Amino acid sequence: MDVRKRKNGNQKEPTSNRKHENVAFDDDYFTNKDHQLVLSPAARLFHSPKFCCYVVVRMGTKTRINVETIKAGLMKNFPNHPRFSSRLVNEDKVLGEEKRWERVTLNIEDHIIVPEVDWEMEDADQFVDQYISNLTTSPLDLSRPLWEVHIINVKTSDAQAVAVIRVHHSMGDGASLLSLLLACSRKSSDPDTLPMLPTKKKQEDGSSSDSSMFWRFLLTIWSAITLMRNTLVDVLIFLATALVLKDTNTPMRGPPGVEFNTKRFVHRTVSLDHIKQVKNALNMTINDVILGVTQAGFSRYLNRRYGEYQKDEGALQKGHNNLPKGIRLRANILMNLRPAVGIQDLADMMAKNSKNKWGNKIGNVLLPFTIALQDDPLEYVRGAKSLIDRKKHSLEAFFTYLCANILVNLFGAQVAGAVAHKILCNSTLSFSSLMGPVEEITYYDHEVEYIASNVYGHPQAAHLHFQSYADKMTICISADPDVYPDPEQLLDDLADSLKLIRDAVVDKGLTIAKK
Length: 515
What we know:
Order of helices and strands: EEHEHEEEHEEHEHEHHEHEHHHEEEEEH
Strand order of the largest sheet: 6-7-8-3-15-14-9
Shape: globular
Number of helices: 12
Strand content: 15-25%
Radius of gyration: 23 Å
């Protein structure tokens, strides 16, 4: 279905005094007794004073961007999308009224920002980086729908032009926002066809003997026991983190108030095929590999930072271990709890009365990284796989999602935001990953070179995101420059770690046929 060509029929332009029509596709919309759209618990949490978060998506294109084409495309789609054509209304809580969404007439000119720049300007990379960084110093205008698109027609080192999309996190989680981008995109090889996301192959077990059924029954019982045990342990650690349990005060951990500081956004593109080569050779998932790469990269980066603090000149020599023992460094992993849908379904999210899901449905998982210098680089990914397999067999993500909703409903967004703020303050950074289209796409007829997504506004000094696109994997970092004065060095360490791990696979002859 081509969303850009969908007809509106007799539908009138949405205005601020229109009553909301049924929006069946959005699980993040709640109606009050007057059938007004009030914010869901997750959306209210993202508007709490201590937890106001934004999503920034940077897209590099292979050609200069035609501003009028982008405007026309957005104007065809976004007026039909309730969330992107509604503004936030702050009601008086004394009167018992709630924050709610109010449909408005969408003025596309309010949301498209085009700075006047020289396409062949010098230091274009630095200009774009500073431009995006400056966005973190100002909030979005609450009198309008909470999104904007910045079109920067300058030639950078990795693209002919750059589009920057900034959206308030209350508008949707990463999976929902990616679905919106894909619904507005088409395959570069076939402009009439929607992009495709990677699909998982289901393993079939045809065994049905009495013996196999007996062992399957025992495994089911054991699996249920370990699931309850793992969940209990994870919940207790999560509650302890909300109270007193803190990460080690490493150079990667930010001070109080770090969420209000200006952030820098950097990215690096590596080969997705190299990641898949490691995945296939070690019988892992892509997430196992990128988490192993992250452990290795963090270990290299911290080893260098600790070496800089020491007066011994040998501390900076290659291979010298400067890491303290017993470092506790945990990442908040944002896990999407929404069932996966196909690209056709993602496109239908843009349509009126679609039955698909949209909104914020994410759980929080605390993942402890092993910070150490390993003699065998493959130990990083093996350790990551073991940890992820254990976390998969736990209901921690569902528990945190459920608790956040209960806290918001019972005590309000400020209390829930304060609890979330404390948990994030007591850990080190946030982490996320999204699988993008398997082949190159066009966004409103503009060929896309790369996609780099990130988040800011949470009380941590950094957010690390992995975003795949075609045969590329883009590593994206948003960081406080006071805590990370050299985020490019961290990107180097992550890219070098992937190379070392992939080289170790090849050297040991572990390569297998591509799956």
